[in-house]
Design brief:
Strand order of the largest sheet: 2-3-1-4
Shape: globular
Helix content: 25-40%
Number of helices: 5
Order of helices and strands: HHHEHEEHEEE
Largest sheet: 4 strands, antiparallel
Length: about 160
């Protein structure tokens, strides 16, 4: 990537709704050049997706999210990639990372209930031959996501218990 592309990526990571005109003004380039550069980044797979970060406390949907640590045996000729491809194919899987440490894969999943996620782990993830063990951690509250601080909706603040 060249300098302009890196700067555009930085602007889009900060605010994916930024317009080509705003990018152009920030970088002293034309809006047409900004649009072409963004399109090129998308076509080359550098920009994969635009998304919104939503504070779940303000949405009326019941959703459970969990981090599943997975220890696997790497497969000959494929390492961790083959099992990662299989795991990532499940709709419940939101994110999947190869990690250093005690576990090899960190899998972020979403479901409608604790039971649904538990069933996903026991009936799908743990059934792969390469999977040695799993550890599931349910996410109870999000304080910061992708650099954005999650603030509770008005009225959701805890009362002081000090006298």
């Amino acid at each position: 990537m060249n300098k302009t592309e890196r700067e555009i990526v930085a602007l889009l990571k900060e605010d994916s709704r930024i317009s080509a005109a705003q990018i152009a003004a920030a970088l002293s380039i034309s809006a047409d050049e900004a649009e072409k550069c963004v399109r090129s980044l998308e076509e080359r797979g550098i920009i994969v997706k635009y998304t919104a970060i939503v504070n779940a406390d303000g949405v009326d949907e019941d959703e459970v999210e969990a981090l599943i640590e997975v220890k696997v045996t790497p497969q000959r000729g494929h390492g961790f990639d083959a099992i990662a491809d299989e795991v990532s194919a499940h709709g419940e899987v939101q994110s999947l990372y190869l990690m250093s440490g005690a576990y090899d894969l960190a899998v972020i999943v979403k479901g409608k209930s604790l039971k649904e996620i538990s069933r996903f782990v026991s009936e799908k993830i743990s059934t792969y031959e390469a999977v040695i063990s799993t550890a599931t951690h349910f996410i109870l509250k999000k304080y910061k996501v992708e650099g954005a601080v999650m603030r509770e909706a008005e009225g959701g603040k805890r009362l002081s218990v000090q006298a």
